[in-house]
Design a protein that fits this description.
This protein has 549 residues and is an alpha/beta fold. The protein contains 20 helices and 14 strands. Helix 19 links the parallel strand 13 (474-477) and strand 14. Bound molecules: ligand C2E and magnesium ion (2 copies).
Length: 549
C-alpha cells in the first residue's frame, strides 16, 4: 500500500515545456519573417532591376511561390500554436482535477468537498435530502507515533476507501489532518435508521483492519451526522450540527456514531452554562468542600476525602459528577483543583488529625506545573504534603509510560501519597496496578455493591486485593451502604471502608460536631445525619440507602 502511495506522481508540478516543438515554431516564424521581408524587398526593386539580377527567371512565378510558401508556413504555425494551446488547456484541466483530490486519501480536498456539499444541499431541498457524516479517526496520533507517518497516510487512504464502500454513492472529502467527511444524496427524506445502517457497516469494515506493513490493526472512528434539510438547509449549520454530534460521540468514548438531535443542543447549552457559571463560582469563592470519612475495619477514622460542592444561585445544587467532566473538558479543572487544595489547607486546623484525600484529575497531571503549584499552595499555608493522599481518578488518560511513572514518583518523593480512584470503572488494566507506584487502590462502588452476587465481581475484587497484598498496597472499598456490603468487602480483603453506611460527605461544621460527639465511629448509627444525602434511617444489614448527591 505504501509503495502505491509512494509512486503517485507529484500532482502539483507541471510538465516541462517540449523543446522540440518550440524549435519548430521558432524555425517557422523565422522562415515566415524571411519570406515576408523578401517579398517586401522584391517590391522595393523595379522589375527591370529584378530581371537584370535574376536573368531569365520568371519573377511573377517567384513572387507567387513566395506568397504561397508564406501562407503555408503561416498555416503550419497556426496549427502548431493551436495544438500547443489545446495541450496547455488539457494540462490546466488535469491540474485542476488533481488539485480537487487529496493525494494521500484520494478524497476531495476541503474546498472542493465543501463546494460540492453546498451544491448538493441546494439541489436536494424540495423532496430529497443529504446526509452529512463527519469522520474522526480515533487515536490517529498514536497510529502516526507508533507506526510512523506513512502508516498514518495508509490508514487515511483506507478509511476514505472504506467510506465509499459502506456508503454507496457517497462523495468523500478530507477536511484536514485526520478528519474525513462524506455526504450522500437521497431522492427522499433520509431517516436516521438508514444512515445508522451505513455507519455500522463502516465501523465494521474499519474493525477488520487496515493493511499496514505486515500488520492489520483494527481501526476505529467516531462519526457525527446531520441531515439537510431536516436539521438545516445552511451548509455551515449542517456542518456544525454534525460536529456537535461528533463531539458527543468522542466524549462518550469514541468508536460509535450519533445523529444530531435537539437533545444535543440542550446538552451543549447546559454545558456552556455550567462552564460559565463554574468559572464565576471559582472566582467568587462560591464553592464548598465537604468531607467524607474513610474508616478501618474497627470503624476508626483513617482519612477524610475532600469532595467539592457547588450550589448555583439559579439551578441549585449541581453534582460533581456533572460539573467535574465539564471542568475537565474546558481546562477549568486545574483552577478548580487549586481552589479545592487551598480550601482544604485553610480547613486543615479544624480537621481531625488524619490525612485528607484530595481528588485530582488525570488531566491536571498532564499539566507541567502541577506539582510545583500544589507545593506552593501547601507552603503558603504551612501544611506538609504528608497530610495528603492524592486520589487520581482512573481514566483513559492514565498511562503506564516511563515519563508518567516518573511523574507519579516525583509526586510521592515530594511527600504525597497516591490513590488510584474508582478502580475497575472501565479503563483499568492490571498492568497499571503493577507499573504505577500507587499506595492505595479504591475499588469502585459498583463492584462493592455487587460483591457476593456476581461471580465476575467476586473474581475481580479478590484479584485486586491479592495483587495489592503482594505489592503492599491498601485496598479501600468505596460505596459501603449496608452492613452486608461492609461484611463482604471485608471478607474479600478490603482494609478500609467508605460509604453512607458510615457517613455521607459533610460540611466542616458538621464534621467537627460529629467528632466532638464521637458519632463518626460508624456502624451505621450516624448514617442518617449527613449533609449530602439523607438516608432516613440507619441502614440495616441488607437495606441499601438512597444515593448521595
Ligand atoms: P469519588 O472521588 O469516587 O468520590 C466518591 C463519590 O461517591 C462521591 O460523590 C461521594 O459522595 C459518593 N459516595 C460516597 N459514599 C457513597 C455511598 O455509600 N453510595 C453512593 N452511591 N455514593 C457514595 P460526589 O461527591 O458526587 O463526587 C463524584 C465524583 O466527582 C468523585 O468521585 C470525584 O471523582 C469527583 N470529584 C469530587 N470532588 C472533586 C474535586 O475536588 N476534584 C476533582 N478532580 N474531582 C472531584
Ligand atoms: Mg475520590
Ligand atoms: Mg471513587
Amino acid at each position: 500500500m505504501f509503495s502505491t502511495l509512494g509512486k503517485k506522481r507529484n500532482l502539483f508540478v507541471s510538465e516541462p515545456p517540449r523543446r522540440f516543438s518550440t524549435v519548430i515554431e521558432t524555425a517557422l516564424i523565422a522562415a515566415i519573417a524571411f519570406l515576408t521581408s523578401m517579398h517586401a524587398f522584391s517590391h522595393a526593386l523595379s522589375r527591370n532591376d529584378l530581371l537584370a539580377r535574376y536573368g531569365q527567371m520568371d519573377v511573377g512565378r517567384l513572387e507567387f511561390a513566395t506568397i504561397l510558401l508564406t501562407l503555408a508556413l503561416a498555416l503550419l504555425l497556426y496549427m502548431t500554436m493551436r495544438a500547443k494551446l489545446r495541450r496547455v488547456g488539457r494540462l490546466q484541466q488535469e491540474l485542476q482535477a488533481r488539485n480537487a483530490t487529496d493525494p494521500v486519501s484520494g478524497a476531495l480536498t476541503r474546498g472542493h468537498f465543501l463546494h460540492a456539499l453546498d451544491e448538493a444541499i441546494g439541489n436536494h431541498g424540495a423532496n430529497g435530502s443529504v446526509a452529512v457524516v463527519l469522520i474522526d479517526i480515533d487515536h490517529f496520533k498514536q497510529i502516526n507515533d507508533v507506526f510512523g507517518h506513512p502508516a498514518g497516510d495508509a490508514v487515511l487512504h483506507f478509511c476514505a476507501q472504506a467510506a465509499r464502500q459502506a456508503f454507496p454513492g457517497a462523495v468523500v472529502g478530507r477536511l484536514g489532518g485526520d478528519e474525513l467527511a462524506l455526504f450522500v444524496c437521497h431522492d427522499t427524506r433520509v431517516t436516521e435508521a438508514m444512515v445508522g445502517q451505513c455507519c455500522d457497516r463502516y465501523l465494521e469494515v474499519l474493525r477488520q483492519g487496515a493493511a499496514i506493513e505486515n500488520n492489520r490493526p483494527a481501526i476505529s472512528a467516531s462519526l457525527g451526522i446531520a441531515l439537510a434539510p431536516t436539521h438545516s438547509r445552511d451548509l455551515n449549520d449542517v456542518l456544525s450540527y454534525a460536529d456537535l454530534a461528533l463531539y458527543r460521540v468522542k466524549n462518550a468514548g469514541r468508536g460509535s456514531w450519533l445523529v444530531f438531535g435537539s437533545a444535543i443542543l440542550d446538552e451543549m447549552q447546559r454545558e456552556r452554562f455550567i462552564e460559565r457559571e463554574l468559572r464565576a463560582a471559582i472566582t467568587q469563592d462560591q464553592l464548598e468542600v465537604h468531607y467524607q470519612p474513610i474508616v478501618d475495619a474497627n470503624g476508626n477514622l483513617s482519612s477524610l476525602e475532600a469532595l467539592v460542592r457547588w450550589t448555583n444561585p439559579v439551578r441549585g445544587a449541581i453534582s460533581p459528577a456533572e460539573f467535574i467532566p465539564v471542568a475537565e473538558r474546558s481546562q477549568l479543572i486545574c483552577e478548580l483543583g487549586r481552589y479545592v487544595m487551598r480550601r482544604v489547607c485553610h480547613d486543615m486546623p479544624r480537621l481531625p488529625d488524619v490525612p485528607v484525600n484530595v481528588n485530582i484529575s488525570a488531566r491536571q497531571l498532564a499539566h507541567e506545573g502541577f506539582l510545583a503549584e500544589y507545593l506552593q499552595i501547601l507552603d503558603a499555608c504551612g501544611v506538609a504534603p504528608s497530610r495528603f493522599i492524592l486520589e487520581i481518578t482512573e481514566s483513559a488518560l492514565l498511562e503506564t509510560s516511563d515519563a508518567f511513572v516518573a511523574k507519579i514518583a516525583d509526586i510521592r518523593a515530594a511527600g504525597f501519597r497516591i490513590a488510584l480512584d474508582d478502580f475497575g470503572m472501565g479503563y483499568s488494566e492490571f498492568n497499571q496496578l503493577r507499573k504505577l507506584p500507587f499506595d492505595i487502590i479504591k475499588i469502585d462502588k459498583s463492584y462493592i455493591q455487587t460483591i457476593g452476587t456476581d461471580i465476575v465481581t467476586d473474581t475481580f475484587v479478590s484479584a485486586v486485593t491479592q495483587i495489592a497484598g503482594q505489592m503492599d498496597r491498601i485496598v479501600v472499598a468505596e460505596g459501603i451502604e449496608t452492613r452486608d456490603d461492609n461484611h463482604r468487602a471485608s471478607l474479600a480483603g478490603c482494609r478500609l471502608f467508605q460509604g453512607y453506611y458510615y457517613q455521607a460527605p459533610m460540611a466542616l461544621d458538621r464534621l467537627s460536631e460529629a467528632y466532638r460527639s464521637g458519632t463518626c465511629h460508624g456502624d451505621g448509627a450516624a448514617a442518617g445525619k449527613d449533609d449530602d444525602a439523607a438516608p432516613a434511617e440507619p441502614a440495616s444489614a441488607g437495606e441499601r440507602v438512597s444515593d448521595a448527591a
